[in-house]
Amino acid sequence: MAVRDILREGDAALSQACAPVAAFGAALASLLDDMAETMRHADGVGLAAPQVGVLLRVLVIDVGEGLIELVNPQIVSQRGEQEAVEGCLSCPGEYGVTKRPARVKVKAQDRRGKRITVNGEGLLATALCHEIDHLDGILFKRHVIRMMDPKELQQ
Ligand code: NI
Is 12-153 CATH 3.90.45.10? Predict the structure, then answer.
C-alpha cells in the first residue's frame, strides 16, 4: 500500500468523465488499497480515483462506519433533499453548503466484480453523491448554494 498524491482543483484529470472498470484483478486491488490509505492519510471521508490521476470509475468512502469500496457505481434511486457542509481533498481549505438528496441507493461492484447495493442517508448519502460526481468530472462546488466564509470555519 502507498499514499498517492492528491490532485488539486484545476488539474485536467478532475474534469473528465472516467471509464468503467472492466478488469477485476491485482491492479484494481492495489489501486483500492492505495486509495483507502491515501484517504485516511489526508483525513478524508471519501476519495475518487481521478483525484489520484486514475480515470476509472472507482471510489472509496469511510464516514466512520467502515470502509466502502465501490467500482462502477451508479445512483439508481434518490429521495428527499438535505443541506450539508462539504469540502473536498482536491480543494483544501474550501467549504460550502450543498443541497443534495437525503437518501440514495447505489448499485456497484466490489473489487472482485460481484454486484453490490449500498443504501446511504445523511453524511453517507452526501459522500456517495460527492464521490460519484468526481467520476463524471464534477466538483462539489457545482452543488454549493453558499460557500463558507473562512471566518465561519474558525468558530
Ligand atoms: Ni471530493
Answer: yes
